[in-house]
Design a protein that fits this description.
Chain lengths: 297, 297
């Protein structure tokens, strides 16, 4: 039974908040450590237990070739979940967490990595959707930490969130998304992470432009990681995708150039930008683990 | 007495909503017409009546040389209002509205224009703060229409909110803030309007960059109009200003160049950018009416 105000719901919420707080503490301490992988795994299993007690409500999908459902009951619904990439089975998740902890991705393929990450991320977001009202910050922060941790483990680098700018007598600090610096003379990574982008995405290109200006074009590779671009009409139970491909093309032509955009649930409209001018390479997130070395050459 | 749920409060809210709806209708019809000036004047007088029934609660100001208060009662407070530029007296407002309607600003000076505009804008925002909870959209929309109307009257041009982009086989529409086009071979204006900016301000420079890229550098003058940058700690009744001058300098150096930033309540930190490199010209809004012809030469 789904009742947030039941004793079970309260206990669940407290347990999740406790885990979420230990996640935040660990992130501040060390974004690379396997302790963080374990906390993420614990959060997944807690969420899974909670979501297994919910109803799965089918949604009408206006997105070609994708089916969506929500967890919830009656009027309270989680965000839409892509049926084809949400894993019911925990085995792939366990394999993935092991790969993260050992930094060995040879026994799991890109497709299953994308599914495992999607399941962990959308699961957390859905639990927050159901336990709280209008909270976009917690899902966004979790997603940022989660992706940041995966990059940190894979690259074996602790990211920074600000950079020093020294410019003819001006000394300022530029707050950034995650930046990963493998050392001088090596390509660095600028990693914005967003659960969804909409109009705000122009910020990503603008930050890349500032980095290009301050440190020189090509010094930082811009990599955007997104969760999905779905929008739910919660009264009529209809899912759509909100995409602005023409604007992305203008940003890529006139503001700066992003090297990659990875999605956990890639919108087809954006994947088609792989074949347009200006080319924007949009790929499922799992691909990152198998091409990042080449990108940093 | 301040009681939102009193009959008087409900009538007030209904009257304001009715006026606000007629404002929106008129904006869609014609942003230039004096009908809109009259509606704005009506809204001001309605707001004034409502706010005169409120308490004026002094705030502790952490902003040098500025004193602030809020309208409200007990825990419900309006946003902070700058005591030195908020007009108690309606005469200057009436003079200003007349100047707008006749497009003759010879009998009012820049300082009084800034005060009149501040009083109208912050008054509307404060009424919404008191009548609703967490509504940032309505104040933002009103402020955008208000400033858009003043530019449209002054320039005698109806602005657009999107531009056609034609680029080697690509045909896209670029949604923009207001753009004013005085005709071919004349400088055009790109006018973003924000009640406050914070981190989101990078969007303004990024949009300017796209316009520079698509239409050529110098084709559009970017003019940002802001209301204020105050932040209220509503528990402790403390006002601060949130400014990010170093980031503005990086944006002005590395993304695009804004021609002017006008504020109704100019933060000193930003006014100081007039004397720094890169120079960003930050002025009280009233100055616009006396220098715009020169800017468009």
């Amino acid at each position: 039974m789904f009742r947030i105000k039941s004793m079970e719901g309260v206990l669940m919420k407290n347990a999740l908040l406790k885990l979420y707080n230990s996640l935040k503490k660990q992130v501040n301490r060390n974004l690379i450590s396997t302790t963080l992988s374990d906390i993420i795994s614990d959060i997944y299993f807690d969420n899974r237990k909670f979501l297994n007690g919910m109803e799965k409500i089918p949604l009408k999908s206006n997105v070609a070739e994708k089916k969506y459902f929500s967890f919830g009951k009656e009027k309270k619904l989680s965000r839409p979940i892509n049926l084809n990439i949400y894993l019911e089975d925990e085995k792939t998740i366990v394999d993935f967490i092991n790969a993260v902890k050992t930094n060995d991705y040879s026994k799991i393929n890109a497709e299953n990595i994308t599914k495992a990450c999607y399941t962990i991320a959308i699961g957390f977001c859905s639990v927050i959707d159901l336990l709280k009202t209008g909270d976009q910050k917690t899902p966004g922060t979790f997603f940022e930490y989660f992706i940041g941790h995966l990059f940190a483990r894979k690259l074996n680098i602790s990211p920074k969130k600000k950079l020093e700018v020294l410019n003819l007598g001006m000394r300022a600090t530029l707050p950034t998304d995650f930046v990963f610096d493998p050392g001088s003379d090596k390509t660095k990574i600028h990693l914005p992470v967003k659960t969804s982008t909409r109009e705000r995405v122009i910020q990503v290109w603008a930050h890349q432009r500032v980095l290009d200006g301050v440190y020189g074009v090509g010094r930082f590779r811009g990599i955007l990681v997104g969760l999905s671009e779905t929008k739910l009409d919660s009264k009529r139970h209809i899912v759509t995708e909100i995409c602005l491909p023409d604007q992305w093309r203008l940003y890529q032509m006139f503001i700066a150039q992003l090297s990659r955009v990875y999605y956990l649930d890639p919108p087809k409209t954006y994947s088609q930008l792989n074949n347009a001018f200006p080319k924007i390479t949009v790929l499922p997130f799992g691909n990152f683990f198998f091409e990042i070395e080449d990108l940093l050459d």
